[in-house]
Amino acid sequence: MPSSEDSVRAQPRKVIVIGAGFAGLTAARELEGAGIDVTIYEARDRIGGRAWTHERLGGHALEMGATWVHWMQPFVWTEITRYAQEIYPSPDIEKAYWVSNGTVFEGTEHDLDEALTVLQDKIFEGSREFFPYPHDPLWVMRDESASTQLQERFLKADTGSVLDCLRNGEYSQEQIDLADSYWSAAYQGPTATASPLMAKHWASLSDHRSSLMDEQTLRFKLVKGMRGLYTAIAGDLRTEIKLNAPVQRIEHGADGARVTLADGTTDSADAVVVTVPIGALRHVDFAPALPDLQQEVVREGSNSIGFKIWIKVEGHHSIIAGAPGCHPISLMRSEKFLDDENATILVGFGSDHSAIDLEDVASAQLAVDVWRPDLKVIDCGGHDWVADMWSGQTWATLKSGQFFHGWSLFHESETRLRFAGADYASGWNGVVVDGAIEMGIKTARGLINEFRSA
Prior knowledge:
Layout: H1 4-9, E1 14-18, H2 22-33, E2 37-41, E3 53-56, E4 60-63, E5 68-69, H3 74-82, E6 87-89, E7 95-100, E8 103-107, H4 109-123, H5 127-130, H6 139-142, H7 148-156, H8 173-187, H9 196-204, H10 210-218, E9 220-222, H11 225-235, E10 241-242, E11 247-252, E12 257-261, E13 266-269, E14 271-274, E15 285-287, H12 292-300, E16 307-314, E17 319-322, E18 331-338, E19 343-350, H13 361-368, E20 377-381, E21 417-419, H14 433-453
Parallel strand pairs: 1-2, 1-14, 2-10, 7-17, 11-15, 14-21
Antiparallel strand pairs: 3-4, 5-9, 6-9, 7-8, 11-12, 12-13, 16-19, 16-20, 17-18, 18-19
Helix pairs in contact: 2-14, 3-14, 4-8
C-alpha cells in the first residue's frame, strides 16, 4: 500500500516561495522533503533576509540584523543542532550608565539589572494568566473555560502604552526613563505606541523572568554568525535560489497562484508562500486584494521604525548604557574588544531611524556623547532596514491593538496564498529568528497536509 508520502510525490506539486530569509529557506527545505518542487524568488542579491552577517568596520564580521540565539528558542536551537553550529557569549560588562532628565547615572551592570527588574516585574504583570501556553498566545481568547473578566483584561492589555503601568505615581521619573530606555530599544520604536501585551508575551517565553529574557535576546551568538546557519540551510536545498528577482504581483486562487516579477516574467504554482515582512507588503500587488483587515495592518505598519548601529571607539571599554527614546541611541553595549587595534566595537539600538546617520562618525559621536563624551568614535555602520523597501521595518514589534488584531490575521486564507516569517509567528514574534523558522515549518507542513488530502 502506498504511503501518504508517496501520495504527495505521485502528484507533481509546485510551490513558489517569495523570500530567502530563514522562513523561506526552512519552508523550502520542508516542502522539498515531501517531494514538492520549489522555486524561490529573492528580491535582494543575497540570502538571509533581515539576518545578514557582513564585514564592516575594518573587516569584522558583524550582524546587520538578527544576532542573538538561545537554547530556549526551540526552532532555532533545532537548526543549530542540526547543522552543528556553536555559540559564544557577549562579553560581561564592567560599567553601566543610564540617563534621566539630563543626568548621567553610573553603576555596575548588576546595579542596572536590579533597578530594571523592579520595573520589568510591573510591566510583566498578568503574563502567567494571559499566556499559559506561550506558543499559542491567543489561547485565552479561545478557551471556553476562561472567564469573561480575564478575556477583557487580555484585550485591555493590548491598549495604551507599555509604560502606562509605571505612571501611577509610584515610580520616579528616573525609573520611567530607565524603562523607556530598555523598551525603546526592544520595541525598535516609540514606547508611547507600543502594545503592553507584547512585553508580557516575551516574558511568558522567558519563564516570566527579565533576566532570562535578557539572556535570550542579548547574550549568545553564533560562532560562524547568522551566515553560518542560513547558508547551511540553503546548502540542503535542491532548488536554485533566484536572486535579484523581486515579485511585483501575486494572483491567487483556490487551486493555485501565479506571480509576476519586476522584469515582467511570470511563474505559476499550486501555492505561493510569501515571507515578505509586513512593512514591505505594500510593494506587492495582490489579486484578489488582501482582505480589508490585513490591508489595514499593512497600512498602519508595525512599531518598528528604529535602527541598529555598530560603533568602533578608541580604547578598551566594557560598558552598557541606556537613555530614553528621546535620545538617538536607547541602548548601547560593548560587543567586541579589538586588542590589536586598541579599540572596542559597540552595538547600539534606537527607536527612530531618522535620528542618526548610521554611516556618519560625527552623528554616532553625538549619540555616544550622551553618556561618555570622552569616548572617541573612529568608525560606525549599519543597515537602515526601515528605509529598505524589501523590509520597511526592523524586527516586527507591535503597536497598541496589534497583538490581538494584527499578525494573526495573516494565518487565515481561502486561497493558496500563505504568509510565513517572523512577523507572523505565534512564538517569538518578530524579535528573533526563532519565529521565522517556526512559521517556515508550520506553513510548509500545512500545505503538505492540504496537498495530501486533496
